[in-house]
């Protein structure tokens, strides 16, 4: 499994970086995604969530200035979702541009600087989570009554579904 993460370093093989530096970068990527302890295992023995985190570690090991991810937290339990999103936040804080597609609105609200809300393949709104995620807008886009409140423990909106009114 460690070799899979190390494949992310392939573009840098000819760079003037010694093997110890490459190994340190691979180890760091594995630590960030909580897969370092899985190093000696083979990929086929890992759960789908573990495989997903290994794939993300491989991407992180590339040290690319832009990362585009589609549903990087699907198949992950809540704890590992937070681990992955925290790792992405630290990369963003370090200057990496991170673009993530998420269906989990609350996860996006908690971890994003900016959000683009899509409706029928078109941008319905772009802005900060607080600007984009409004009860009215979400209810319209999802054709489902929604309520947006302040998250009690984070500085972000919290989206709640509301029962459809009886007809």
Describe this structure in words.
With 167 residues, the chain is of the alpha+beta class. The chain has 2 domains: 1-99, P-loop containing nucleotide triphosphate hydrolases (Rossmann fold, 3-Layer(aba) Sandwich); 102-167, no CATH class. The protein is 41% helix and 19% strand. The chain contains 7 helices and 6 strands. It has helices at 2-6, 19-32, 48-61, 78-93, 105-111, 129-132, 135-142; strands at residues 66-70, 97-101, 115-119, 122-127, 146-150, 157-161. A two-stranded parallel sheet has the order 1-2. Strand 1 (66-70), helix 4 (78-93) and strand 2 form a beta-alpha-beta unit. The mean pLDDT is 92.
Q: Which topology of the largest domain does CATH recognise? A: Rossmann fold
Name the strands of the widest sheet in spatial order: 1-2
Helix content: 40-55%
Quickly count the helices.
7
Number of strands: 6
């Amino acid at each position: 499994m460690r070799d899979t993460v190390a494949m992310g370093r392939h573009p840098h093989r000819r760079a003037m970086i010694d093997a110890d530096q490459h190994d340190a970068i691979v180890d760091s990527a594995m630590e960030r995604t909580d897969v370092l302890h899985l190093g000696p295992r083979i990929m086929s023995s890992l759960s789908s969530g573990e495989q997903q985190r290994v794939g993300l570690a491989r991407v992180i090991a590339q040290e690319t200035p832009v990362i585009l991810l589609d549903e990087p937290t699907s198949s992950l339990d809540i704890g590992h979702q937070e681990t992955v999103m925290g790792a992405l936040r630290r990369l963003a804080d370090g200057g990496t541009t991170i673009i993530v597609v998420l269906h989990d609105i609350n996860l996006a609200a908690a971890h994003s600087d900016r959000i683009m809300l899509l409706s029928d393949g078109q941008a319905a709104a772009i802005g900060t989570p607080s600007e984009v995620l409004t009860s009215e807008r979400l209810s319209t886009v999802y054709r489902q009554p929604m309520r947006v409140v302040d998250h009690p423990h984070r500085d972000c909106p919290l989206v709640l579904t509301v029962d459809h009114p009886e007809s």
